[in-house]
Amino acid sequence: MKRFVFISLILVMPVIISCQSTSEYGTSLAIAPSSLYLDNAFPKPANLIIQTEQEIFMIDDAMKSMVKANLNITHNTKKKAKSLLSQIFAKDNMAINYASNANLTAREAYHSHVANCMSLTIMAYALAKEANLDVDFQQVDVPEYWIRNGQYNLLTGHVNLLIKPSDKLNRNIIYGNDNIQIDFDPYVTRQTFSKRIIEKNTVLAMFYNNKGGQALVKEQFNIAYQYFRAAVEADDKFSPAWGNLAVLYRLTNNLELAEKTYRYTITIDPKNLTALTNLAILLRNQHNDVEAEGIENMLFNYRKKNPYYYAVLADEAFYKQDFSKSVKLYKRAIRLNNKIHELYYGMAKAYYQMNRLSDAKRAMKKALSLNMNKSTEYQYIAKLNFLKAEVTN
Q1: How far apart are CA 144 and CA 124, in angstroms?
Q2: Angle between the N-to-C axes of helices 61-70 and 77-89, in degrees from 0 to 180, rounded to the nearest 10
Q3: Closest alpha carbon to 56 in 3, 129, 1
Q4: 204-217, pLDDT tens digit by residue?
Q5: Is residue 316 located within the same domain as residue 186?
Q6: Dist CA 249 CA 260 (whole Å)
Q7: How far is 43 from 222, CA to CA, in rounded Å?
Q8: Does pLDDT of 171 surpass 50?
Q9: What letter would DSSP give residue 25?
Q10: Which end of the chain is least crowded, N or C, by CB within 10 Å?
């Protein structure tokens, strides 16, 4: 699934063991956001340039020429939107390739022919604006979905574009399931997730937050801090950036400020389960077991029907080389949803480590049959061919 839009970091998944309201874990005190900054501890690197909003969304003459030649040849909203998608993906046009870490500006994505979903969405938005389309960003309320990166579990969100048709005749489905919708995740387009329009400054915060998340994973703490601060300055209600700032404080042993920032995050968004998870981890480490247990129990009740929750636990077990436990957890996830190709792929990896090659081959075949993405398909085919050779030998 190509979901890498805004990142929240979880250090380690807690062991789930009294159910309380999430708002009880926030702060009852009036906190000035500026009191949560720690500028002296994280000076800005001299060579760090944080792109402005204008630079992130700017298009150049080549992009304007493409819009003029291919999109503005019609006034029909539907045809313009279709042409935009064709230009992005057709081999004889931009032919953008997906890369999860390609957190690029509109111009960088256009000319490098590589982007993640965030960059694709930003680029498509900028091109749609140039084509005089009435376009908005939408945040999609997808289930919690994690990606492992070393010691971190990265929780990702999703954003797409909604183009408002200029007349009733143009109200057609283009690449989604509601009005004229441009979405770069085929899984999302097949679902009925709720959506809401968000402002451009929130998308700007997401962009900076992704940059900060990437830096944090690389332990480039000064860079991460600058991007997280830029994110909350762009949108001070964007809770994932506040939560990631708290993670940074936790990693750099600023524990009191980390707890304060987690609680502030929960105050502005009581549904930020990642901040709650990380707060529980911090409280456990501080031997505040009563409050931590309350949070953990509440989180389990939220997550127990989400297959991705068991998938991240399975991945955690794999990371710790408990491959048998990993398989059991993947099977539990599959019982909740047997149409997710990543679950079978994860189970195949665990089977392979257990030297159960026939089971690994069978799981890889299932993953391949469910996958809808070409680049992932090539990866799966290669791994399946390898397993076939292993089984034969």
Answers
A1: 25
A2: 130
A3: 129
A4: 999 999 999 889 98
A5: no
A6: 10
A7: 6
A8: no
A9: G
A10: C
φ and ψ at residue 148, rounded to 5 degrees: -85, 140
**In which residue are the tokens 């996958």 written?**
371
Residue 57 pLDDT:
97
CATH code, domain with 323: 1.25.40.10
Please tell me which residue, 25 or 329, carries the higher pLDDT value.
Answer: 329
CB 307 within 8 Å of CB 284: no
Cβ count near 137 (within 10 Å) = 19
Q: What is the pLDDT of residue 300?
A: 86
354 and 219 in one domain?
Answer: no
**Spatial separation of the C-alpha atoms in residues 380 and 371, rounded to whole Å:** 9
- Confidence category of residue 29, pLDDT binned at 50, 70, 90: low
Would you say how long the chain is, in residues? 393
SS3 13: coil
186 and 313 together in one domain: no
pLDDT confidence of 374, banded at 50, 70, 90? low
Give the pLDDT confidence score for residue 231 in this predicted structure: 97
Dihedral (Cα; 245, 137, 4, 223), 10-degree rounding = -30
In which domain, by residue range, is 78 found? 53-225
- Residue 99: pLDDT band (50, 70, 90) is confident
One DSSP character per residue, 52-104 reads PHHHHH---HHHHHHHHHHTTT---HHHHHHHHHHHHH-TTTT-PEE-TT---
The torsion defined by the Cα of 160, 156, 246 and 227, in degrees rounded to 10, comes to -50
Number of domains, the chain: 2
